[in-house]
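Throughout our pipeline, every protein is held as a single compact record rather than as scattered files. This encoding replaces a full spatial description with a residue-level series of whole-number codes. The remainder of this section carries one protein's record, kept here as part of the documentation.
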Amino acid sequence: MHPLKNLLVSTVAFSIAASAAVSFAFVKYFPSVRTPVSTVAPSDIPSQVRSSESVSVADIESEVKAVASKVGASVVSIVVTKDMKVYRTDPFGFFYEPSGTVRKKVGGGTGFFVRSDGYLLTNKHVVSDPNAEYSIVLSNGEELEGKVLAFDPTTDLAVVRAYRKDGKPYDSAVPAVSVAQTSDLSVGSFAIAIGNALSEFQNTVTFGVVSGLWRSIEAGSPDGASEPLTGLIQTDAAINPGNSGGPLVNLSGRVVGINTAVTQGANGIGFAIPLSEKIVRGVVDSVIERGSIKRAFLGIRYAQLTSENAAEMGMAKISWALVAGEKGFPAVAPGSPAEKAGIKEGDVIFEIDGKNIGSAYGVKEALSEKFPGETVRIKVYRKNVLGSFEPVPFEVQLSDR
């Protein structure tokens, strides 16, 4: 087993001015076991497998071209501008004082239309500065104005709407992207990234594979703030500063993720937040109907079991979630969906909606595609009167707080 590795990564919005925020993160890899690699001669592979899985380079090239053409029209560049102070000094450097402000380009990123009436999805860190202005540049060069509508409280997502120069909402023939019905992916699947590379090369297309799933990073900024992002897609499709907020697309032309971070000092290690049709529809509908993004609220505090308390409790896995409070904070929030359903402190959650809770797929990931009003099935181990643990099922109707 190999020890955990910490690699410096950064979110991939492109910042030009020193005053613009630059975010960094640390990636957490779980230990892996080396397995021997065997060489199999082509003659040893059944002919039906060879014929069904053999794809020519020309076929792949054709697919990539088709996807780039289809999705590229829906991808936009986001230009960040801001009023910056200008200073003046005398030729000898005796005084140095402010002399006004000038509007400058300070950064950039990417976004893509998720509705034909001008609603865009991008990364929160691309449009998080309340003092900046955001221009939307279409693939044909047309420039629009962007208004930030809402930030996702749980992930690095933001919804922006494009407006024409006359202030009217943008509504034209530019198509919305097609999003995959589910975020289920496999390692090795082909992936295409489209984005505003270096905030200079608009609609840059790169091609690679899904390198890993359920990755976790700790995203932070120079001021010490940090934000954990979990359940990420790792890809080797080249992602550069400026790609933040751009789509990660499969060969069917459907968006499967939104590009978010890239590892500094390494080659081919980028990260995207998984997307599904349900997530995109839920996020945008929430903004339209409520004016903000409302995510599902369960109402518990939990911690991953340690080997020590798992042994004490006789639990089989240390990756399950122990419902436990902290100083001044209860394990189960009063009046929450969890309390109403009967979940209690000391319960150990081991399954949600039929999926086992693990070190990579935890409670947060299980709820990532849930929205207020939905019902989830949760199974816990609970200590009975005899002191042993037995499984107890719950049905919980989620709320928005």
User: Anything to note?
Assistant: The chain is about 15% helix and 40% strand. The CA atoms of residues 64 and 310 lie 48 Å apart.
